[in-house]
Amino acid sequence: MTLFLDSGSQMTWLVTSASAQEAAPPAPAAPQPNSAPPPAPAADAHAPSPDATHSAVGAPEGHKGAFPPFDVHTFPSQIFWFVICFGVLYLLMKRLVVPQIAEIVEGRAAKIAGDIAEAQRLRLQSDTALSTYEKALADARASSQKIAQAATDKAKAEADARRHAIEAELTAKLADAEGRIGDIKTKALADVGAIAEDAAGAVVHALIGQQPSPEEVSAAVSTVRGS
Amino acid sequence: MANDPIHQFQIHEYFPLGQFGGMEFHFTNSALTMIANVAVVTGFLYFATTKKSLVPGRVQSVAEMAYEFVASTLKSSAGTEGMRFFPFVFSLFMFILTANLFGMFPYFLTATSQIIITFALAMTVMLVVVGYGFYRHGMHFLGLFVPSGVPGAVIPLVSAIEVISFLSRPISLSVRLFANMLAGHITLKVFAGFVVTLAGLGVAGIGGAIVPLLMTVALTALEFLVAFLQAYVFTILTCMYLNDALHPGH
What we know:
By secondary structure, chain A is an all-alpha fold.
């Protein structure tokens, strides 16, 4: 900001020195009638050479005694050409240049936005695919577990059934065998009486030479066996 | 004569166009500069962007930069609604910037160092602001001069101040641009003149001429900055005034 103030103050001494010079001839109504005296020392420091050369130039240039930017004589031409030039520039900008650049800039913005939306869509799609895959995998795992479980159960049940059947068969066979052993035992024990009676009769006959009656023998044997 | 710092602002009349209403119209160096200005701005911006590449080249990105710079300035000051003035503000910025930069070429007239041109620019802005303000808001546009939340007794005073500040806008707008361009060019010319004068004094003078020479180089860089900055300042103030036309209630 000091920059502008600085250059502004430099401007004023040059302007006032010029307008002071302008005020010297009696003709035009100067824009700053009373402000010439105060900046005199500053003007003295730098102004002499411009003033001297300016007045030297002033004669061949003709009517221009004034500081050029304040020369009212040039104003109509400058305004005239400014209106034409700025008007043409405005129309060219509005019709030609701004739409063209806007098309580029906005086209690029639209393209970027579109690409981002497309990327978003594809990411969503891949996310869906991934979740579908994971679900399928989990399903497959669960069903394989179920199948394995069922197979195990079935095998176990079959094995149990076969074991039960074999056990039952063995039990039956055992019972059968025990029955037969009992029969044999009973028969053997029954045979033991008859053999004992025969043996006792033979023993008695050998001892006393007399054949005892079978009733006595059998009574004696059963007495002994009964005890 | 070569050292006269004022000579560069002289308007030369090349040929007369005629008289109208007691005023003489001429084709001048000022007109030539402005025509060249319009041709350069339009030509550059148009041919830089004819390819419409998605990925811009160097020239195209300069044109786009100018576009987006003005667009963001306008949007931040006057909102999205302000974009209806974009062609106007863009023309204004490009016209002033190019006129200022043209002035950096030796022997070229700086159109913006002519008070009448900067005043015409400022008045164009004011006419657009006032014209659109009344067109859009009718008499409500005058609400611009009555800030809300001010006690009734103070309103006449505040309104008077507001009116004065509004009326001084075209003056401050035009004088700021004019004074900056004028002062910069005069300073530049004065320092450059010292170089020539001192160098003419012999060996010691040539040694002494180095200081103003360095100063001239530095000032030239500064003037390029000022050329851009003043175009920007003019543009952003225009945007703020347009914002008043769009939203007159404070």
